[in-house]
Amino acid sequence: MIKLYGSRRSRATRCLWALEELGLDYEHVDINHIAGETQTDEFKAINPAGKVPTLVDGDLILFESMAINLYLAQTYGGGGLWPDDRTCQALALQWSLWAATEAEPPNVVMALERVFKPESARDAAKAQTAEDNLKPRLDLLNQKLGESGEFLTAAGFTIADLNVASVMGGARMSGMDLAQWPKVNVWLEAMLSRPAYQRAMGR
Predict the structure, then answer these.
(1) If you ran DSSP here, which 8-state letter would residue 78 be given?
(2) Burial of 151 (C-beta count, 10 Å sphere; 0-12/13-18/19+)
(3) Which of 22, 30, 58, 176 is the most exposed place for a label (fewest CB within 10 A)?
(4) Cβ atoms 2, 55 nearer than 8 A
(5) Count of other CB atoms within 10 angstroms of residue 191
(6) SS3 state of residue 177
(7) What does the pLDDT look like over 80-107, one tens digit per residue?
(8) Position 24 pLDDT exceeds 90
């Protein structure tokens, strides 16, 4: 059986979402990285990097949430989360990597400075700078959704939508008003309303 190690308060959430979308039988091992549970000898025997999420599927041990999701989609989601069309496959890779390298860094800063840090330790200026850095990324995503319609590729809902939405959900969590990007706003609401996402979040 597939095992996924990681807390719902980490990037493991996007992997839980992928597992739920795929309808796979899996075990979720809720491990608290904030409390140092990833630094134990027991966990480092599984993943010497001491990071979550970590996926175990047979002999494969995999970390990095985007790598996990792309593996799951390609291995178990043919014709669904992983599109059959080569162009759509390329776009799924493009948007997943874009989410990790372009959209996630400012989202992480906003989440830290507006949600996760104690109020006395928050830096409003850092959060605002991060929000300003995210705006051109939202412009691009809004333009893309205006061109492609309901999803990021012509194949319908794929791992591209899941991975990007899992990142952009951070903007909403951090209190950013997305009304300026109506296509993104509608798309994100639809993505985060999916039953598989709700199950992944334990709702």
Answers:
(1) B
(2) middle
(3) 58
(4) yes
(5) 19
(6) coil
(7) 999 999 999 999 999 999 999 999 999 9
(8) yes
Full-model pTM: 0.95
C-alpha span between 37 and 171 (Å, rounded): 28
Distances (CA, A) of 74 to 82, 89, 143, 184: 5, 9, 27, 26
Upstream peptide bond of 53 is cis (omega within 30 degrees of 0) = yes
Helix, coil or strand: residue 61: strand
The full length of the chain comes to 203
pLDDT in tens, 113-131: 999 999 999 999 999 999 9
Phi then psi for residue 161, to 5 deg, are -65, -45
Handedness of CA 58, 63, 66, 67 (dihedral sign): negative
Task: For residue 2, report the phi and psi dihedrals to the nearest 5 degrees.
Answer: -65, 140
Separation of alpha carbons 108 and 110, rounded Å: 5
Out of 3.40.30.10, 3.30.1540.10, 3.90.650.10, 3.40.640.10, which CATH number does the structure's domain 2-77 have? 3.40.30.10
- Distance between CA atoms of 121 and 187, rounded to whole angstroms? 33
